[in-house]
Specification:
Helix content: 25-40%
Order of helices and strands: EEHEEEHHHHH
Strand content: 5-15%
Largest sheet: 5 strands, mixed
Number of helices: 6
Structural class: alpha+beta
Shape: elongated
Length: 221
């Protein structure tokens, strides 16, 4: 059975059993996904691909089958807010170890967080330098593990990977992971803080980073 479906104002024919995501892809309309992998995993568990129907209902595009006369919008304020909240929830439970992640530099989660204004992932996640090419691995001071991503890790001053001028990540687990990385490579934590002061010396965020990065380590000893 052939049906008429309208997505973002574009009318298209669709077959029975097709899902909104399939039809949108044919039209060249991008709907972001995280958990969906065609013919492998189609469980609609991440809820990033939600779209808005003509009646205002939000549904997952990867799982919702089209029907004749269906009207779909993929980028309304309601859709964007839902995706933003979902990303915040996913990030709150996500184990952030970007420095050693194989997706470092090509992370879909980072791209989506940047697109929807969700912060909390460090620059390391979008930095293209791996292994021995990493500045920290070379013993150079880099704020990547403790500062917010979002500028594609491209420093406008000298062409090097982003140093972290957008401000620090304040999640305790991220900072403690950063501390382990710096110590492992013989980089002074006090020196790291001196570099960070350039961007946020008088902020509450700086105080939190200092507490998690240095103060608590001193107390442990």
């Amino acid at each position: 059975m052939i049906m008429k479906v309208k997505i973002n104002g574009l009318e298209v024919e669709a077959k029975e059993g097709e899902r909104i995501l399939d039809v949108a892809n044919r039209l060249g309309i991008r709907i972001p996904t995280l958990c969906y992998l065609k013919n492998v995993y189609e469980g609609a568990s991440c809820r990033i691909c939600v779209v808005e129907l003509g009646n205002g209902k939000l549904v997952p595009a990867c799982a919702y089958e089209v029907s004749d006369g269906l009207v779909v919008s993929t980028d309304t304020p309601k859709v964007r807010e839902s995706r933003r909240v979902t990303l915040e929830l996913l990030l709150s439970a996500h184990r952030i170890t970007c420095q050693n992640c194989p997706k470092k530099g090509e992370c879909t989660l980072v791209e989506l967080c940047s697109e929807y204004g969700v912060e909390g992932i460090p620059v390391c996640a979008e930095c293209p330098l791996h292994g021995e090419d990493c500045f920290i691995a070379k013993g150079e001071i880099c704020l990547g593990p403790i500062t917010i991503s979002g500028c594609k890790a491209e420093c406008v001053r000298d062409g090097k990977a982003c140093e972290g001028c957008r401000g620090p990540v304040t999640r305790k687990d991220v900072i403690e992971q950063a501390r382990r990385i710096y110590v492992e490579h013989g980089i002074s934590l006090e020196t790291v803080l001196e570099r960070l002061k350039i961007y946020c010396a008088s902020s509450r965020e700086f105080d939190l980073v200092r507490e998690y990065l240095v103060v608590r380590e001193v107390v442990k000893r």
